[in-house]
C-alpha cells in the first residue's frame, strides 16, 4: 500500500460524499496480475509483433492463424492470471458506494472474476468467440485441426469477440457507458494511456457534465492536465489505500 499522506484530504471528502461514481479502466489495471499492457514490449514467442499490429481486421484477413494463435496465447495467460489488489479494491468500492458503474477497455474478464458487478466491456472479451462473417457468438465447435476453426453455422472463420482497431464498439455498450458518465458526479480513469477512442473521450464527457475526475496512473497521459486529481502510482497500491482511507 502507498503512503496515505499522498492522497489529498479534499479527495477523501469527495469520495465519502460521492453518489454516482463511474470507473473506467485500461490495461494498466491488469498489469499487476501479470497481463502485459498494450504499450509494453511483448516477450517470448510474440516479441517481434506489436499488439497494435495484431489486433486489427486487416491482420486477421492477412493471417487469421497468427491472430487466432496470439489470442489463444493471451487467453491462456489471462486464465492463469488472478485478480490483483486493485481489482479487489474496486469490488469493495462498488459494495460501499451508493452507485458505482465500472467500464473497462480490458478484454481479460479479471474485474468480473474479482467480483465486480455489471461490468461494461467496451472492447469485448477474449474468452468469447464469434463468427467473423455472421457475427454470431459461438460457444463450441466440432473438434478440428483448422486454425482458426470454422463457424458451425456458416463455415466462416471464428475470431475472438473483441473490438479491434478500426472497428466500431457495440452501440448499446457505448450508449450505456455514456449514460452512466453523464449522470456521474465522480469519474476515475485508471491504468489507461487515454489514447484509444472512444474510451479516451469518456473522462472529458465527465468533465463537461461537471463531475470531478481522478486519474490513477504511474505516467502522465493526455488526460492528466485536465484531471482534478492525478494520483501517480500503481492501481494495485493506490486503490486499496483509497478504500482504507474512505472507510476508516
Ligand atoms: P495501454 O497499454 O495503452 O496503457 C496502459 C496504461 O497503464 C499506461 O498509461 C501505463 O502507464 C498504465 N499502467 C501501467 N502499469 C500500471 C499500474 N500498475 N497501475 C496503473 N496504471 C498502470 O492500455 P489501454 O489504455 O487499456 O484496444 O489501451 C487501450 C486499448 O488499446 C486497449 O483496449 C486495446 C489497445 O490496443 C483494442 O484492442 C481495441
What does this molecule look like?
This protein has 248 residues and is an alpha/beta fold. The chain has 2 domains: 1-34 and 83-123 and 168-248, TPP-binding domain (Rossmann fold), CATH 3.40.50.1220; 36-80 and 132-162, SIR2/SIRT2 'Small Domain' (2-Layer Sandwich). The chain has 10 helices and 9 strands. It has helices spanning 9-17, 28-31, 51-54, 57-62, 64-80, 85-96, 110-114, 171-183, 202-208, 235-246; strands spanning 20-25, 99-104, 120-121, 124-131, 137-138, 158-162, 186-190, 212-216, 229-231. The strands form 2 sheets. The chain has a 6-stranded parallel β-sheet with strand order 3-2-1-7-8-9, sandwiched between helices. A 3-stranded antiparallel β-sheet has the order 5-4-6, covered by helices on one side. The longest helix is centred in the first third of the chain and has 17 residues, at 64-80. Bound molecules: 2'-O-acetyl adenosine-5-diphosphoribose (OAD).
Keywords:
elongated, binds 2'-O-acetyl adenosine-5-diphosphoribose, 248 residues, 6-stranded parallel β-sheet, SIR2/SIRT2 'Small Domain', alpha/beta, 17% strand, 3-stranded antiparallel β-sheet, 2 domains, Rossmann fold, 36% helix
Q: Short summary of the structure?
A:
The protein has 248 residues and is an alpha/beta fold. The chain is built from 10 helices and 9 strands.
- What structural category characterises the helix and strand content? alpha/beta
Number of strands: 9
On the 0 to 100 scale, the average pLDDT is 95
How would you spell out the order of helices and strands?
HEHHHHHEHEEEEHEHEEH
Report the CATH topology name of the largest domain.
Answer: Rossmann fold
- Specify the biggest β-sheet: 6 strands, parallel
Strand order within the widest sheet?
3-2-1-7-8-9
Small molecules bound: 2'-O-acetyl adenosine-5-diphosphoribose
Radius of gyration: 19 Å
Assign the CATH superfamily of the largest domain: TPP-binding domain
The number of distinct structural domains comes to: 2
Distance between the termini: 15 Å
Overall, the morphology is: elongated
What share of the residues lie within helices?
25-40%
- For the record, the CATH architecture of the largest domain stands as 3-Layer(aba) Sandwich
Strand percentage:
15-25%
Top-tier CATH class of the largest domain = Alpha Beta
The number of helical segments is 10
